[in-house]
Amino acid sequence: MSDFWTLDSRLPPGQLVDVGGYRLHQYTLGQGLPTVLLFAGDFGWSLEWRHIQLMVAEYTGVCSFDRAGLGWSDPAPSQRRLINIIDEVQILLERSDFRGPYLIVGYGFGSHLSRVFANLFPEEVLGVVLVNPRDEQPPEDILPALRSEDRKVARMNRIRYALAQLGLLPLAAKLLGNHFELSNCHDLPAYIRTMFYESSYFAGIFAERECQTENDRLVFHTKFPNNIPLVLICSAMPVWLSKFFVEDRDHAQEVWQASQKRFLQLSKQSELITYDGDEDEVLLSQSELLNNAIQKMLAGMRE
Predict the structure, then answer these.
(1) Distance set, CA 188 to CA 4, 49, 50, 185 (Å)
(2) 79, 216, 237, 249: which could join 136 in a potential S-S bond, CB 3.0 to 4.6 Å?
């Protein structure tokens, strides 16, 4: 089984599927039911799952995809509301013949998609794994830290976008390193890293950010089917939060656990798994942890 991110070609490794006048990129591996459907996080696309997908493909079918405007997918004419993205996913699955029932794994913003998908199609979803999910209504004590981090990320992306439009972002990344180079891309070949330096990538990010408040509101009013098993995988303490509460880590732990507790209450069959390290490490250095959780949930479905 080839590692698609090591290929020396800009051609998409999977299929480009027309979903209504524009195409989404879908990458499928493995065989078997239930099938695992991977929803990427903020700014993420199919290669975000590059370690996990190969592991899961050893024992069942697994599908990742690029949301419109990101990765190898075309931009979409519609706004990046959750309901529009879910409609695109449904068309993608139908036209690519990738059938359920599904075990859905959602990371970050992908957790929003997972919850709305489970609400709309509960008969197709046998289980959900939320990985460092976005909290649409975080505890009051955590809001200042969350907003501070969001502003910092948005500011840096605006600078990156301006440099990308001028064709200077690769040079800035080379000269200034981590200030302008996106993290967790060092294991990728040069042709993929250059995709993160294109202005179209940041345009896709901004399109999703424009709908963030509306999407949070929709998820808040979306009821998760509480009979669907749920596994929550979270960092014991994300770096951005520990930096904000540098003088009161005990309080930071309390508010972080309060957020996790609310997610666990979504389902009557819920489980929390924590790990030491920053949020994105569960997709990289901690990928075996996520793989084991998926295997365990699938085993329970097949009994």
Answers:
(1) 10, 12, 10, 5
(2) 216
Q: Dump pLDDT digits (tens) for 109-152.
A: 999 999 999 999 999 999 999 999 988 887 787 778 778 888 88
pLDDT at 188: 72
What are the structure tokens assigned to 91, written together? 């068309």
Query: Is residue 34 within 8 Å of 126, Cβ to Cβ?
Result: yes
| Residues 96 and 35 sit within 8 Å (Cβ to Cβ) | no
DSSP assignment string, 178-211: GGTSPTT-TTS-HHHHGGGGSHHHHHHHHHHHTT
Beta strands in 44-144 (DSSP E): 62-65, 102-107, 125-131
CA angle 38, 10, 2 (to 5 degrees): 55
In the predicted model, is pLDDT for residue 1 greater than 60? no
Name the DSSP letter for residue 236.
S
Distance CA 32, CA 82 (A): 28
Strands (DSSP E) contained in 30-161 are 35-39, 62-65, 102-107, 125-131
pLDDT in tens, 167-188: 888 888 777 766 666 666 666 7
Picking from 22, 5, 1, 21, the residue whose alpha carbon sits closest to that of residue 13 is: 5
Question: What mean pLDDT is reported for the chain?
Answer: 88
Q: Could you tell me the two tokens for 249? A: 């880590």
Q: CA 164 to CA 241: how far, in whole Å?
A: 29
Residue 4 in this model has a pLDDT that exceeds 60: no
- Look at residue 101 and give its three-state secondary structure: coil
